[in-house]
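Same chain as my last thread, 181 residues:
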Amino acid sequence: MKAPELHSEAPFFTVSYTHATQRELFERHFKVIKIISGHALFTAQQHTLCVKSNEYAFVTPGGFSKIKMFPAKNQAFRLICLNFTDKIINKHVRLHGITGSPSHKMDCFEKIRSDAWLDALFASLYTYCNKQDQPDNDLLRIKQEECLYILSQRHPDLYLSLYAKRNHQRQDLNSFMEKNY
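reply #2:
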């Protein structure tokens, strides 16, 4: 079994910084992030969200973002991230038939309230933060499905945004192509 790559677009991503660090990137995928220690400021479209240790963030694709990461006193900044590519979302939509739309407009970054199910999922992923032994791609697909199930049951607005944003992006691309080609 092949171990997954460790980079910010991989299905599973974790980082550790001992000094304040800033990254700028284009958000290409849906993400669920847990801050393990320290705190992060997520900024997109003049909206900033502070996510502290043991809090979660939901990231929607399609915008440029700036992430400032700050270590805690005597502890490195650490986060765990699950990325959801279009391929994963499309497969999930086909299997489960997501329809509907969220009750409010989703920002690029939203906090997710902590609950026992999310905590258990990310506790199982935490095992892979300190070790050379990384989860294989099959295990990661199971964890992604588990995360999507948790969103569907505990955070329906975020779950519905997977479908709504996916369709919105497709419409935006179609209208762009029609206007310009």
